[in-house]
Amino acid sequence: MRALNSVRIASYDGTTSLEHLGEIEITNAAPDYAEAIRQAIEAFGGNARIVSAPHSAGLCLLTEGLTEGLLANRHHMALQAILSADGNMRVIALDCASAPALSDIGGISGLCRSFRIERPGTRLTSLSIYAPADVDETASRVARSLDLPDSDYMLHTDEIRQDVLGDGLLPPPAHEGASTSPVWLISGGGRGVTANCAVELANRTGGSFILLGRSDMTEWPDWLEPETDLKALRSALAKNSTRPGTPKKPVEIDRFARKLLAGAEIASTIKSIETAGAYARYVQADIGDRASLRSTLATLVKEVGAVTGLVHGAGVLSDGLVSTLDLQSFETVFAPKVMGLEIILSCLDKRSLSHIALFSSASAVFGNEGQANYAAANAWLNNVAIQLATSMPDTQVKSFCWGPWHGGMVDDALARMFTERGIGLITRQEGARIFADQLLNSPHDQVRFVVGDEWGDQ
């Protein structure tokens, strides 16, 4: 495991001359930014014009990432603009990496990293603007960054930075436990690797655990022997299909078997948390429904107390090559991971939060073939983590950029793919230990972690 650090790599040159870049195009998706950038480029001797889409210049700046509106749509628009550029054109995609509203933050860097993996040789750069000032100041930073080599950069007020991996981290020394009993809210916490982390937290901190998930708690039939293998369970259900109320068709049997296994896993998680001496409650909830979630959480807070720790582990995949990713695929991925976090935070009293943990992905750091949408959503999480840590100095905020786990979203086919690339899988026990160590005990200024093997150069 290594920390992901933001380091200074350059300062802004006030004597920049852009004449040598030739004609520069700027997309008009965000008109105010486009015009300000055009003026800034020309102030430095460059030649720029505003276009509706990349056309014929050697360099095009994309302002799609600076538009208002839903995050999924914004990132899909940026991808479409990148795809529309000629293969020989240098493209620079812009977005904001910090903003007063979380919905105005972007994750374009993750999208660009994945795009470059799928299409080697593409000249694609991302410029993510930190501490955004007025439009003219932002435009000036962009204009003075156009000569940077193709890569991903953060444009801060006084300097340009890049993300780099730090040295390997040892487990931090343990701190004294909290004097009061914590209340943990864990999205996606009933099943999978997030559940392992919840159990480890219960062993470390005790307290109360509210586990949010989409699955229902389907009870295991009395007549059915316990089973953990899906294939074997389907076979057992098929043999008992003559029983009243038992599904008969193969597709119905499969659906019921999956519901049974999900319910059994949730029940096992609750039992493990209670065995650790903590209280656990599973709540089936749609974290995308603001009104419903607000009402649900208000009731739970009355019962168990204010939430003091948030673990956001919810997430789904909708993979595809960049040429095939449609808006729906972005919406599918962004709904639980991005909108879910926004809605959960809006329903909580942030003054009570002592810990926030976000489940990000190494795809945001390295990119990954077929996961440009997922990498973008997780890059957004990383940017949000930095902003929350800055604005909430008394709160431990951590973003875990997980490599592939043994289990979780990694099926047998993905496991073979990672093995072929020489990338080891994180065991559930080790991942949960790392998670609890760093969330509870690491220094406040260590916000982002890459857990697992480095796979950017694979």
Automatic annotation (TrEMBL):
The keyword Signal belongs to this UniProt entry's keyword annotation: no
CDD domains referenced in this protein's UniProt entry, alphabetically: KR_2_SDR_x
Q: What Gene3D superfamilies does the entry give?
A: NAD(P)-binding Rossmann-like Domain
One Pfam family here: KR
Could you tell me the keywords of this UniProt record? Transferase
| Listed SUPFAM superfamilies | NAD(P)-binding Rossmann-fold domains (SSF51735)
Please report the name of this protein according to its UniProt entry: Polyketide-type polyunsaturated fatty acid synthase PfaA
Q: Which organism is it from?
A: Hyphomonas adhaerens MHS-3
- Organism ancestry: Bacteria, Pseudomonadati, Pseudomonadota, Alphaproteobacteria, Hyphomonadales
